[in-house]
Amino acid sequence: MKQTRLKIVNNQGFELSAYLRQPVDGKSHTLAIFAHCFTCSKNLNAIRNISHALTKNKIGVLSFDFTGLGQSEGNFSDTNFSSNVSDLRVVANFLQEHYQVPQILIGHSLGGAAVIQAAVQLPEIKAVITIGAPADAPHLAHLFKEDLEEIRESGQATVDIGGRPFTIKKQFIDDLYHNPTSEVLKKLNQALLIMHSPQDVMVDIENAATIYQQARHPKSFISLDGADHLLSNKGDSLYAGNMIAHWASRYLDTPDEQPDSSESQVLARTGKEGYVTDILAGKHHLLADEPFSAGGTDLGPTPYDLLLSSLGACTGMTLRMYADRKRWPLEEVKVHLAHEKRHAADSEDSGNPNSRLDHIDKVIEIHGDLDKTQRARLLEISERCPVHRTLQSDIIINSRLIE
C-alpha cells in the first residue's frame, strides 16, 4: 500500500492532516474518503486495515483528521457537525482537483451521519457506507446527557468521551439538532450500505434499522456481528473493508480492466509503517507481513511462508499435470511444508549458528485410486517441479538501486 502524507486547507484556512493510501503501483480505479468518529483520528487501526482491504481492490482511500482533531489545525471546541460536513466537501474537491473524482464516502460513527449529509451535496459520489452510525446526529447528545445542563447554562463543559476530555460548546449541541439525518436520507440518491454491530454499546443497533427504513433503494445492510464500536479486532475491520470493496464495485464507474504493469514479474513495496508489504504479481495482489511476535501485524504470510507456498503450489501443479497426461485417477494433492535451519548430522561446528543449513521438509499427501508403483512415481516427479529444481540449484541474485 502506497501512502502519501497530505495537507489540505479547509474553508477556515486551517490545514487538515490527511493520508492518501493507494495500491502498491499507485494506480487507483477510484478513490474513497473515510470520515472517522469525532473522538478518533485518521491513525485508527481500523481505518488502516479497511484501507488495506480496499487498496487490494484498486480503491485508493483518503483519511483525514477533522478540524481540531489529531494533527489537523484548529480548535475542536469551535467546530460542529456542519463544519465536519464542510471539511468533507473540501477534501472531495481537493481530490477532484489534484487526483481524480472520488466516488465513495465511508463514515464511522458520527462520521457516518456526516457522509450522508455530504453525499447529498456531492453528486459525483456513487456509493455511501456507514459504520456504526447514529440514525440522527442528536442521538449523540446522549453522550453528554450528564453535562447538558452545564453546557446550556455555562455555554460549554468539559466532557469525557471514550476516556478523553473534550470541550463541548452549546453551539455544537444546537448544530446537531439542526441537521436531522432523517430529512437528508429522503434526498439521498446514491447507493447506501449500512454496517453495524448488534453488540455496539456506543451506538445501538436500532440506529441501523432506522437508517435502513428511512433510506431509499438501492440500500443494503451488513451485520458486523461480534465487533465493538471501534472495530478494534483486526478481523472485523478487514472483513468490513473486503465487504465494502465488493459491494461498492456494483455502483462505481471504473475504467475497463487493464492488466497491471510492472517492469518486472513481481513488485513488492514496504512502507514506513511496520513490515506490511504489498506485492503485485502480474495482475494479482498479495500481502506479506511478520507475526506479532516479530514486531509485525500479521496481516499476511511471512516471506518464508510465501517461499514454501510457491514450492507447495508448484509441486501440486506438477503432479496434477503428470497424472492428467497419464490419465491416472489422482483426485487431490496436499503438500505440507516446513522450513528451519539445522546443523548437518556430521557437523564439527554445531555450536556456531552460522554453520546451520536450510532444510525444507515436504510431505506429500496423495488421494486417489493409485497403486504403489504410481504413488512412488508421483513422489519421484514431485522433485522435478520447476521451483524445487530452482531451490536446489545455484542461484545468482543480481541487486541494483534505481537512481
Q: What is this structure, in a nutshell?
A:
The protein has helices at 45-55, 81-98, 110-121, 148-154, 170-177, 181-185, 206-214, 234-248, 303-326, 372-382, 386-392; strands at residues 2-9, 15-22, 30-35, 59-64, 102-108, 127-131, 156-161, 164-169, 191-196, 219-223, 266-270, 277-281, 284-288, 330-342, 357-368.
How does this model look, in words?
The chain is α/β, with parallel strands linked by helices. It has two domains: 211 residues, Rossmann fold (3-Layer(aba) Sandwich), CATH 3.40.50; 80 residues, 2-Layer Sandwich (GMP Synthetase, Chain A, domain 3). 32% of the residues lie in helices and 26% in strands. It is built from eleven helices and 15 strands. It has an eight-stranded mixed β-sheet, with helices on both faces. The protein has a three-stranded antiparallel β-sheet with strand order 11-12-13, with no helix packed on it. Helix 3 links the parallel strand 5 and strand 6. Helix 1 runs parallel beside helix 8. The longest helix has 24 residues. The radius of gyration is 27 Å and the shape is elongated. The two termini are 22 Å apart.
